[in-house]
Amino acid sequence: MNPSASGAWQRTSPFAIAFFIGRTVRSLTRNIVQLIATFGALAVLIERNPQVALAIPAGVLAIVAAGVLRYWFFRFRVDEDRIHIRQGIARRTALDLPFDRVQGINVERSLLDRILGLVTVGLDTAGSAAVEGQLPSVTSELADDLRTRIRAHQPTGEAAEGGVGDGRVAPSERVARPPSAPAESLGQVVHQLSPGDIVRIGLANRNLVVAAAVLGLFGQSMDFAEDRLRPTFESASEAFVGASGLVQALAVVSLVLAGLAIVLSGAFLRYHGFTLWREGAAYRTRAGLLTQREVVVETRRVQQLSLSHNLVMRLLRRHRLRALPAATLPGQGGDAQGVHVAEVLEVPLLRGPEAEDLRTRLFGREGRGLSLLPQTAGFRRVSPHYVRALTLRISSTMALVSLPFLVAVLMAPAEPLPGGVVGGVVLGALLVWLASIPVAALIAWVRWRRQGYLHDDDGLASRSGFLGRRVDAFLFRKAQDVAVSQSPLQARKGLATLRVQLACGKVVVPYLELGVASRLRDYALYRVESSQRRWH
Amino acid sequence: MFSNPEVPHESLPGTDDLDWHPLHQRFVRRLQLGAVVRVLVIGAVSFAAHLLATGGDSAALGLLVDRLLPAAVAGLGFFATLTIVWPVIAVPRRGYVVRENDILYRTGVLWRSVVAVPFNRVQHTKVDSGLLDRRFGLANLSVFPAGAEGHKIRGLGADTAERLRVYVSERIEAEATEPGDELDSPSPDAAPTPVHP
Fold first, then answer.
1. Which CATH number is associated with domain B94-177?
2. Nearest CB to A485: which of B111, B123, B150?
3. What is the three-class DSSP state of B118?
């Protein structure tokens, strides 16, 4: 696999078989319902005829054989200005990918890859060809060579500029260094996560919070659980209920600890050794304990920055930053079906000032008046009529969702219920719904307090949230289209909602004054239409 | 030398005093016919389903006619009236404006919206027409920006749609080849502190 041997068809390393097997298994497990149905049917069949059990090793063998065949039929050829990839067993596909279409190279290294000094290269085209543009288990030299060639073919001539930042991921890519190794050779380190930070990420895991809440309820409602769980978990449940308070407490504590261990190890697997560094006009992140993932996003391709934190992160005074690149490239796909979300540059944990520093780096000289921090004083509130509209929306949604349940309750008994009972149930439900309106109003009020917007001459930041908070910021000149809309209530009050479509999604600012919304739209259009700069 | 003087917000072209182009007159009739066809199909299908479900049992059918049919007919009638009357209200409130640098489209009777798509962000365009559209000599124009579903302007005259498509395509071409597109892009996009000396 000599990188200089361009023009010749080559195979990847045989270790790519593991990659192909993994891909097959992943595609099988993606359709989980089908999988469960298959295994269920298999279990029934095995019960009737034990010989059917042979199907399991046969299936495993078939998956391995498919992996070997896929490896055998996978060939690629690197030319001066493009790469050809041919693959597939029955359905052959041939991909012809010009280098100037490639947005970036993302590198992933499984544990096996790292031991052997190999890398799996993903050519980020942000088109539908994303899955085909993967080269599993190739040498780091080939990855470097590809990177150099792609740089040389970038349309705006970053080749000259990119090289200066020492973008070539030279030495440390070739040898599987431990991720904690200094990354000076990869450019200027901008951000790193310590083990303490990764523990914080684990603690802020949404699932952990939900699980703790559920467990709290579970601990208090053992009577209910005893009735429900008896058939399946009879012994465990009985042992649990029969045990003394101390043992119960111990069991709950150990469950919490187990949950904690799971989320913490998950966080370490994903974010261990997280490093963000700058190379030329691009930013690169690398993280992972076993499988190491690298994401590279060029500054000018960033469409939107999103800073968010949930309740736990807020208490820890930390944020999460995501830089979203365009989801599609011109001339590729374009129809909504073909939309592929490109690799997102994510910094899972950082402080406010660090986030602001990254914003100025990624937005460059533009958007200096913006802020990603939700507590910034410059954020303006939207109209208080938003509370009313949101209360109405929440209450009517609740009514619509609970109506079928009510009907089901009334229709369930075999004998028709006497009119009095029906009336009572309906009245009760109505009272409960009426009582829930103040709760909905409270939720709406909190959300209104979170909602806000801030803009300068270059861009806009929109704040939203309920328990957590989130700020989405973008530059006006990167907008794709702009819409101003009015509901009947908004029309009566002279208000409107501004929707700015970006190449990575939508940013919405609700309940602005119509004049403000229209002016913002006209100004955004002016910035888009007068801009001569590439937006992607 | 490239210059970029600031533009006061008040002087920006707004959308208040625009001359909105209406959709084609025949579009109302096309929507009404579409609604009639839909109602007939739904009615026929549900009647057939009932026949199948009752197995042509006249007693059951009689019961059904007694109980359900009036309500169903009333519901269907209301639906039909609404879908036939609605286009008369809704179509005049839709419209579009083609400006030098963008295209605007407005819709909605109760929930109103105006969307503006700049030509230098349009990825591609499409004109399509269904069976009914062709019967009335109409066509739909779609413009697709990046990362979004396209915006479809329905109910244009077939000629108008094609002329608009050609115009938008030419504008896209013009934007793509305008000088300066490549010139100033790399450096201002780079981070504020370049590493190279």
1. 2.30.29.30
2. B111
3. strand
